[in-house]
Input
Amino acid sequence: MTKGNKKHNHEPQNIEVWEDLVHIKDLGLALLICGAGALGGYFLAPNNASEPLFYGLAGAVLGFIISSFIIKPKRTFEEIREEDQ
Amino acid sequence: MDISLILQMVLVAGIASVLYTLIGVAPGTDETAVLAPVTLVLVLAGFEPVIILTFFMAAIVAKKLTDSIPVAVAGIPGGVMSAPMVEHALVLKKHGLADTSIRKMASGSVIGTIVSIPISFALANVLSEFSEVIKEYTDPIFFFGAIFLALMTKNKWLALVSILPLALLIQGLRHLYWGVGIVPEDTTVFISFFLGITIGPVILTLFELLNGDLRSKLTRHDTKKISFKISKKIKGFPNPFRILTKNETVSSFFSSILGVGTFFLSPVGMTIMIGEVVASKIKDPVKKAARAISSMDALTNAAYISGTLIPLIALGIPLSPTAIGPGHALFNAPPVFTQDHNLHHILSMSEFFWATIIGAGIAILITYFVTVKYAVQICRFVFKRIPHEAMLGLFFGLVLLLAYMDAGWLNVAGVLLIGLVAGVLNRLGVNYGVQFMTLYAAPFIVNTLF
Output
């Protein structure tokens, strides 16, 4: 296996999970970041009423945002402009 | 109701609409996963009950309006409820009609919302007369619901046979937790099991990835090519009755009524059924798909709204999959809401009415407009910026969090186990509807039948 997130242009490396393509290592990374965010938020939160839940959610969302920045979507988006009716 | 309260309702409806317009677009967002925790937080934070209901109504309408977008553009379900529509949406996508697909689905949603609100109130009024009797039969209703849905699927025998083992697994874990003492005897672990079933197919795939032989055998792809035809812009405020053909409007209308009438059954199961019924007689593949998706979206919306409103208004117990899943916190969120003191007991009929009208109305105004007008822009943003890995990660994080909150570390393994079994059943052909109904019926199946 080559190192981490090297460009994988030469050979197709993406697999399909739940109707869309992912790269296995990127998926592992995202699961790790979001999982750690959710539980990290939960455990760091002040321990009263709904705050642990709220911090946990916020942690998961933060993990999501971080993952979105460091992982590139495996899609190419092509737009065809249609002039006729 | 004073002016400041109404203004607050309008404000939260607006916030919910914007928030769930964005969440709805993200592929694979499960309704329960995105609605239940947030509603729970609002309840526990001590917001006014009428404000919470307004928020919830706006959130479901907005979420159901936008979750059609990823289905139409990439064939990725925007939520569990839109999963059955994938097949038909892919037909339209293949013909380069992804944007038509979005507009048809969103318009179906609007019809579902408009039709279901008055009928839900009427049906709730009728049912409240019989509420005492119905409450007694809640459990058998879920049990027969599971059997009914199993009989509706393609693989009847498979679905029927799988009900019992799945129920045993669910109750087995609950009794284990009580026995070990990590959950008090009067608490039933629910939400995390529900999420375990939902994420089942992903859990199964993740386990497979850990096996080197299976991993190397998986088909490898390059990137996913999504081509998107942009047709003429719609001028002015979009009108659902002009976007849908007469036939589509009529079948959406009747699908909505059916959705309200079967509020106690799994909306996913009913959606699959109506899709098959509506599409079966049409030959032309494009017309067939357009009719199917508009009717299916109308039904899911109607089922969600009625599934929330009818049990809330008439019974006060979560006697529908929507109520027990995404709307769980409206019925039961101790210490604020309990079985004997929840929205059913707190809100008056006029408060129910205004919360629904303001919530649904504002969500339609904001989200329908945005969905129909800016579907292309929204898609472009989501597909270029949001990796599927992050979506799966977020969902996984939520499941982990709620699993831990329900019953600690042991339950994380418990949810993995449920996900694994549910994933296998799913791949074999037992749909979510049967599995969810079994989850609700599990205590009855194990404790009463044996």
